[in-house]
Design a protein that fits this description.
alpha/beta, Rossmann fold, about 40% helix, hydrolase activity, acting on glycosyl bonds, glycosidase, hydrolase
Length: about 260
């Protein structure tokens, strides 16, 4: 698809349920985000999304759904607008990608029938997108999430290390960017009813180097009495871990897609 916002052609992978071609009905949608270094093919090639989802649907563990896997690696890596607002990936996602796929395919375009999940960098995208737009997603499932900076100082270090950006931004610009891109800050400060309107499934392995941010978010949610599922299973930051997580995620988001 063509993106005016990113001034480029953008790719995405799509999973269609087995009965899509023979039915006339519309389907729920899961936006499934890849991690850093992968692209729209990551969940297809390494995550085995076709086999796992086909099996989950056939076994009755997941409802038939469409899965959209966008590319967030081409041009620049990441799911967010940059601090200079020159690369606006998040705007592309909500203003161009979602309207495009939800009109091109038979998708039920309402909050109840829309979910988001992702791994690592995509787990961070899942946190931020659902926190920025709780009115759009019924469920969010961050896996081994890179949950954003835990402090403004950490954010400055990341800008310098990852983007070679040592610009001395005004304090208010830094603070605003931090507050919008730290899942921990948002969990601690956003209106609790907004956060509660999303069903949360958070999973991070006991040997994962991203354990700290996920653990602190879990604690913050407990303190604010925000319902959520939090899992720490044996494993690290690996595709083996995420393949094992995917059937559970499909079942979790299906619970919202079904009638309660």
């Amino acid at each position: 698809m063509t993106s005016k916002i990113l001034d480029s052609q953008r790719k995405f992978a799509i999973y269609l349920p087995p009965d899509y071609e023979t039915s006339q009905r519309s389907y729920p949608v899961l936006y499934l985000l890849h991690g850093g270094g992968d692209d729209q093919t990551g969940w297809v090639q390494f995550g085995e999304v076709l086999r796992i989802t086909d099996n989950a649907i056939r076994e009755g563990k997941a409802t038939p759904m469409i899965i959209v896997m966008p590319d967030a690696n081409t041009g620049r890596r990441g799911y967010f607008n940059d601090i200079k607002n020159e690369w606006r990936y998040e705007d592309f996602f909500f203003e161009e990608l979602m309207p495009y796929v939800e009109s091109k395919y038979r998708i039920k375009g309402s909050k109840r029938f829309r979910a988001i999940a992702g791994l690592s960098m995509g787990g961070g995208g899942s946190f931020m997108y659902a926190l920025h737009h709780p009115e759009l997603f019924s469920s969010a499932c961050p896996l081994s999430a890179s949950a954003g900076p835990l402090s403004e100082e950490q954010m400055k270090e990341r800008l310098a290390r990852r983007y070679d950006d040592n610009t001395d931004y005004p304090a208010d610009v830094m603070q605003q960017y931090y507050e919008r891109h730290s899942a921990l800050f948002m969990m601690e400060n956003l209106p609790v009813d907004d956060i509660k309107s999303v069903r949360w499934y958070i999973d991070c392995g006991d040997d994962d180097f991203l354990y700290e941010g996920n653990s602190l978010i879990h604690i913050a949610m407990r303190k604010r009495e925000i319902p959520h599922e939090y899992r720490v299973r044996q494993g690290g930051h690996t595709w083996t871990y995420w393949r094992e997580a995917l059937p559970v995620v499909l079942g979790f988001v299906s619970d919202a897609f079904h009638q309660y």
